[in-house]
Amino acid sequence: MAKRWYVVHTYSGYENKVKTDLEHRIETYGLENAVVDIKIPTEEVTEVKEGGKRETKEAKVFPGYVLVRMEMDDNSWSVVRNTPGVTGFVGVDGKPAPLSRDEFNKIMRRSTPHGTTGAPAPHRTMTTDLEPGQAVRVVSGPLAEFDGQISEIMPEAGKVKVTLMIFGRETPVELSLDQVATIS
């Protein structure tokens, strides 16, 4: 029987504990040949803090879900399903549905051909505590020392649109997140 990837739903925040507990249960029940891999999809997220300071950390792509590569039978299903913190398998009508190779690759952000393995493609997302309408000061670049108001935040690009008063006119300017700081 082929080993396929299945999505297991967990209590949010318990993904790492479920992975650890499941690894112990697999060993205890002697299922190392049936349940062969457990992954928690993550990505690097860069947060821009006060004053433009950047902080990079790992964040879960799908909080509350763990991927398990296993041979599905009653025994392996029972061991995974009855692991503390697991609420069930993702599927149709209560029946676990395996992921296709393309679905797995998308979830893991991979772009490798079928049958090969590789490191996940780096995917970065920026988050910030800035909000539209907030007053900011430009702290670097040619517009340094100008004050303005945020009109749009583009975390995927790591940028913000700020409306600045230049020569008595409102001028929209696109800046990187580390070029602005909030005015207190």
How many strand units? 14
User: Runs with pLDDT <50, length 5+?
Assistant: 111-123
Count of helical regions: 3
By secondary-structure content and strand pairing, the structural class works out as alpha+beta
Sheet with the most strands? 5 strands, antiparallel
Q: Quote the beta fraction.
A: 35-45%
What string, H for helix and E for strand, traces the elements in order?
Answer: EHEEEEHEEEHEEEEEE
Question: Overall mean pLDDT score?
Answer: 83
Structure description:
The protein has 184 residues and is α+β, with helices and mostly antiparallel strands. Helices cover 16% and strands 41% of the residues. It contains three helices and 14 strands. It has helices spanning 15-28, 74-81, 101-107, and strands at 4-10, 35-39, 42-48, 54-60, 65-70, 86-89, 91-92, 95-96, 124-128, 135-138, 147-154, 159-166, 169-176, 180-182. It has a five-stranded antiparallel β-sheet with strand order 13-12-11-10-14, with no helix packed on it. A hairpin with an 8-residue loop joins strand 10 (135-138) and strand 11 (147-154). It starts with a strand and ends with a strand. Residues 111-123 have low confidence and may be disordered.
